[in-house]
Design a protein that fits this description.
The chain is of the alpha+beta class. The protein has two domains: 99 residues, Beta-Lactamase (2-Layer Sandwich); 182 residues, Heat Shock Protein 90 (2-Layer Sandwich). 54% of the residues lie in helices and 18% in strands. Strands 2-1-5-4-3 form a five-stranded antiparallel β-sheet. The longest helix is centred in the middle third of the chain and has 38 residues. It starts with a helix and ends with a helix.
């Protein structure tokens, strides 16, 4: 009897254990299936993060990469990120965030290093976290540029303002001498014009850095614009004993129009021409040419000046940078002209390049995408209609 009793108890325990085990397997199977199917929170997060311009990824509890948005995919330091994600330290951080439900911030060891990223990790659901990164290296670079701009601007303003103050005092003290008053008044006028030109160039630079809006888009005939600027600077060139030669290889073509901000493009062309004339020797020639190449309009300005060493080719487009500060100031330059040119080209989807070496002058080339003219649009429409008719006839 006792044996039967023990057998019954054993069977009952075995059945109970089997049922519990089956339920456990069923539960874990359901959990596994649920885990394998993408949770709604992850799907929604993907849609949102894809629109972000900042670095964003989704990780699971093992710090395995589940998703990366476009900014993360295009990030130059993605290989370094993969190494961090695979590290035990990152895995421990992810587990802590999931366990506590609190976000964690990871600062880079060297914020000033190129590509340095500050990470914020926060929970998305019970099994996933979002890792959002901000390129603090880029932030540091922007802050440094702002500091440099303010410092340079202050320096540029200090000289004419101080000169105006001294000249004003000299005029007051020499009020009884008309000749002295006239001499200092002329100098005062020169410093005032210099200050005015600097102010206008700062405004032009600000406009050049702004993105084009729909109100800015207008047809621009670069052929006419370039010809007008050459004509307007002929007197300045003659006063400097410099000849201007303009060659238009686009003559007779209708596809000469661009779209953009006419005033900004005119300022960019004027800056290049003025620089070329100012840096040319007496008796020198500035060559201006216009041509088309692969859907672009190329405006080239070549001078016979002292030339620019290759080490300065990229720096000359920086704000307030001068290869020869003393010569530039004596010529009336503000150090902003080429920066205005570069930013104007970028805003219009174009570019500016330089070819130069010491003693061989300098050649600057503006590249701008051509707009499709009405005649080109009509040709394209006619060609499409012919193709469509041919397809219908072949059916």
């Amino acid at each position: 009897m006792e044996a039967h009793s023990e057998l019954g108890i054993g069977l009952a325990i075995g059945i109970a254990f089997g049922v519990a085990l089956a339920l456990a397997f069923r539960f874990w199977g359901a959990q596994l299936r649920m885990r394998k199917s993408e949770p709604a929170a992850v799907r929604t997060a993907k849609q949102i993060l894809e629109e972000f311009e900042t670095f964003s990824v989704i990780l699971d509890e093992t710090a395995t990469l589940i998703y990366a948005n476009q900014a993360a995919r295009e990030y130059d330091g993605s290989t370094d990120l993969d190494r961090r994600l695979r590290s035990p330290k990152m895995q421990a951080t992810v587990m802590r965030v999931l366990a506590t439900g609190e976000s964690v911030v990871k600062n880079p060891s060297d914020p000033a290093a190129p590509g340095a990223i500050r990470f914020r990790i926060f929970p998305l659901d019970d099994y996933h976290v979002v890792l959002a990164g901000v390129d603090v290296g880029e932030q540091q670079r922007v802050f440094a540029m702002r500091r440099d701009f303010i410092a340079n601007m202050s320096h540029e303003l200090k000289t004419p303002i101080a000169a105006i103050g001294l000249l004003s005092e000299a005029i007051v003290e020499g009020a009884d001498d008309p000749r002295t008053v006239l001499e200092f008044a002329r100098k005062l006028q020169g410093e005032s014009e210099r200050l005015n030109e600097l102010t206008k160039n700062v405004i032009r630079l600000s406009e050049a850095q702004a993105s084009l809006s729909s109100e800015d888009i207008e047809p621009v005939d670069l052929r006419r614009l370039a010809q007008d600027e050459v004509t307007s600077l002929e007197e300045f060139a003659a006063n400097n004993a410099v000849s201007l030669v303009f060659t238009d290889s686009t003559a007779g073509r209708s596809e000469a129009e661009l779209t953009g901000r006419a005033a900004a493009l005119r300022s960019a062309v004027s800056n290049l021409l003025t620089n070329a004339i100012a840096h040319s020797p007496k008796g020198g020639t500035v060559y201006v040419s216009l041509r088309h190449l692969d859907g672009e309009c190329l405006l080239t300005v070549r001078d016979e000046g002292p030339g620019i060493d290759v080490q300065y080719h990229s720096r000359i487009f920086e704000r307030f940078f001068r290869v020869d500060p003393a010569r530039s100031r004596s010529l009336g330059g503000t150090g902003l002209g080429l920066s205005i040119v570069r930013n104007t080209m970028l805003a219009h989807g174009g570019s500016v390049s330089v070819e130069s070496s010491p003693g061989n002058g300098a050649t600057f080339t503006l590249r701008l995408p051509l707009a499709m003219s009405p005649s080109m649009r009509e040709k394209k429409r006619s060609r499409k209609q012919r193709v469509d008719r041919a397809r219908k006839q072949g059916q």
